[in-house]
Amino acid sequence: MKFNFLQAAETPMDLLLLADPEASIIQEYLPQSKIMAAMEEGQILGVIVFLEISESKLELMNIAVYPSHQKKGIGGQLLKESIQWAIMHQFSSIELGTGTFGYQLAFYQKAGFRVDRIIKDHFLNSYSSPIFETGLQHKDMLRLKLDLEAFTDH
Known about the structure:
It holds the Pfam family Acetyltransf_1. GO terms for molecular function: acyltransferase activity, transferring groups other than amino-acyl groups. This is N-acetyltransferase. InterPro entries: Acyl_CoA_acyltransferase (IPR016181), GNAT_dom (IPR000182). This protein is of the alpha+beta class. It has one domain: Aminopeptidase (3-Layer(aba) Sandwich). It is about 30% helix and about 35% strand. The protein has helices at about 15-20, 25-30, 75-90, 105-110, 120-125, 150; strands at about 1-5, 35-40, 45-50, 55-65, 95-100, 115-120, 130-135, 135, 140-145. The strands form two sheets. Strands 1-2-3-4-5-9-6 form a seven-stranded mixed beta sheet, sandwiched between helices. Strands 7-8 form a two-stranded antiparallel sheet. A hairpin with a 2-residue loop joins strand 7 and strand 8 (about 135). The longest helix is centred in the middle third of the chain and has 15 residues, at about 75-90. About 25% of the residues are buried.
């Protein structure tokens, strides 16, 4: 598997919509983002999308793997490659927003992310349709943060 950077126009919207169901929100951040793809034989298996918030901070905006390639560690490899890239480019932290429950919460915490704060009613106020996972509606957003300076000490 190879990891390559893509331009926004090369990034499959159907893949991004797996992680963020609101196309208008994706279209707002995608043109300014760094997009890394996991590729095999020229085929995109998954992507991770980062937005530079400041000279020292990145925000993880989207990470998605096609269903036929899930449960193979591709998302974890994308995250690991992106963290290494961020360290090499001297970023001090990566932040992200996610729901207050679901498999993705454990995924990020295993990678070293910690809860930073909660934004109440984010999913109710920011999305045109309710977002459900395992029968529960997402309402609040957890903001998670990975301190890359502490991360590199291990």
